Fold:
Amino acid sequence: MKWWNLFKSNFRREVILLKRYLPNTISMILTFYFIFLGMFLGIQIVGDPSSAEMNIQYVIVNYIFWYLAMATMSGIGWMVSNEVVLGTLEQLYMSPLGAYRIFLSRIVATTIIELITISAMLFISMLTAGTWLNIDVLSIFPILLFTLISMFGVSFMIAGMSVIFKQIQSFLQISQFLFMGLTFVPLSIAPWLALAPIVKGVDMIREVMIKGVSLVDFTVVDYTILVATSVIYFIIGIFLFFKCEKFAMEKGILGQH
Amino acid sequence: MTFAVEVKDLKKSYKKRKTKEKIEAVKGISFQVKKGEVVGLLGPNGAGKTTLIKMMCGLLIPDSGSCFVNGYDMKNQRLKALEHISVVLEGNRNLYWRLTVRENLEYFAGNRGFSRNEVSNKINELLERLNLKEKENEMVNTLSRGMQQKTSIAVALLSNTDVIYLDEPTLGLDIETSYEIRKLLKSIAVQEEKTIIISTHDMPVVQEVCDRVIIVNHGQIVADDRVHNLLQLFESKAYSFTLNGHLSSESINYLSRRYVVNIRNENNGKTILDVNILKGEDLYEIIDLLKANQVLIEKIDRTTVDFEEVFMKIVKGGERFEMVESL
Structure:
């Protein structure tokens, strides 16, 4: 129950701040839409007309996952940096439920909010492109869940780095391109990328949304890679976060700006 | 007996970034705080107070030693220990400026696992008590420093912990607000029987709010006693002589070398000599010296001291006082 109250409290805070920073929220959504529009028009104008629809479908799915990866994985880095600037990070560490639970709550809260935004943006993107993807919720949801777990693992790694280094904005900006590579490069080109976080999940969701396959069409190997990468990255993320936290507490740099 | 807070031989050292020189910030500090006790933690800048408080909160891991809160070890049972502590950290580091007063209270209560319904009545009660009711829906960044500090204290009280740490609660406040905060802290100490540890530079806070004071200097405890005892002790050591005549420059030099003195020559030919002595025999030595200077002693008064003077004497004078029996 205490965990649930902690989650509700952090979710509410995220919603309040989104409302309070409304112009920023709106500009974020508009930027998302206009970048998509640019890519869509690019494919229409310079792309091969015979494969244009397929390309557009790929762009929609890849772009949405790139955005989600940035919001979730980089978001926590920005959040920790922001807490340090505000000076409230140490106060979060005074919670008897543990700072990691607060961070996890915020990551989950951000993800839920982003998923709602993304669903709306997905609809608008499909409407703009005039191309409709296969939104098979029952097939997408379990894959998405495991994909998100590995995203959360990477989020914790970034959170740990932020706890030690505080100002990691440059890294976060570079990481956008890393996430782009993870979401845009298809596994058919680089199969070994399946071992990287989120890649297998994104690939499977692409299959569902673009090729219309369902859960039964995937092999045991697909599921094994999906679940194993999710669990492993999550465990590594949490482990690294605790190590970084301990290091910061030993060196006395937890709240240092 | 389980103490509310028990600190055992805490040590912490840092290495300077550039020179790699080792700095011992805390050199084996030990003390116990009983339930319901209000303790002031005093010390000049760089004395090791903040390092100590952070180790007591579990925000900093000591090199050695341990800290217990209600019997829970801060090292091995940190989260359990944190259930019993709330902290008001120094400066504007306790609140979210873009949230309102009520939202801040609800948020931090949520971080301790309380639902909004559970704390709703308590929040209303605290807002009334701290005169924040009218400001409950205002964003923290629009409030005065004093109001922000009261909100931070409200957050600490809302969690209903037995132990509260306050780091410089009156820092940067004007005289009136500082007085208000002192009154508030005093009422919390009296009415709620909480164990409170206040790290401060503000001597009136120590004198008016605290039962006991621990003075830290160069990473060590240099005094640990009841506030009343320390005041009494130093009062008995501070004297003011009214002299008929003036002292020779040799005598003034001699007194200045040996004691903490303040000498004022009055227009009416009199001299006021304020002196602090360490031992009873010193008083006789001063009287002998005055006799040798052939100045008439008109009056000897015991000087009233405030806690600021006590603090300065202990820290500057390098004196060391151990805990008294009464503790």
Remarks:
- The longest strand of chain B covers residues 22-33.
- Confidence is low (pLDDT under 50) at residues 319-327 of chain B.
